[in-house]
TrEMBL record:
The lineage of its organism: Bacteria, Bacillati, Actinomycetota, Actinomycetes, Mycobacteriales. This is Metalloregulator ArsR/SmtB family transcription factor. The keyword Transcription applies. Residues 2-105 form the HTH arsR-type domain. SMART domains: HTH_ARSR.
Length: 105
């Protein structure tokens, strides 16, 4: 039986969301203004990984792994500014996911 590519994508998303801290990170990123100030406005460039790490109370490597899982699922995008990586929610993908859940599951 051939696997539906949409079901593969959904499985990747659900795997990324299977960790409560990753779910909280997505919730936090919904309002980037709730993070500490940074040089570039978080609403424009995303939230610096160091702020996500501090709020999640995890090591830098764990925070990086969490964000990599969310990014590979398409739920966040990243932007490198100098030595720092900033993350934003991918609202387009999240909206499509919500619609896909509503119509297909």
């Amino acid at each position: 039986m051939e696997e539906n590519p949409d079901s593969t994508g959904l499985a990747l998303v659900f795997k990324a969301l299977s960790n409560p801290t990753r779910v909280r990170i997505l919730q936090w990123l919904k309002d980037p203004g709730d993070f500490p100030p940074q040089l570039e406005p978080a609403e424009e460039v995303g939230v610096c990984l160091k702020h996500i790490q501090a709020r999640a109370e995890v090591s830098q490597s764990t925070a990086s792994q969490y964000m990599a899982a969310l990014q590979s699922a398409g739920l966040v995008t990243s932007r490198r500014i100098g030595q720092w990586t900033h993350y934003q929610r991918n609202e387009e993908v999240i909206a499509r996911l919500a619609e896909q859940i509503r119509t297909e599951l």
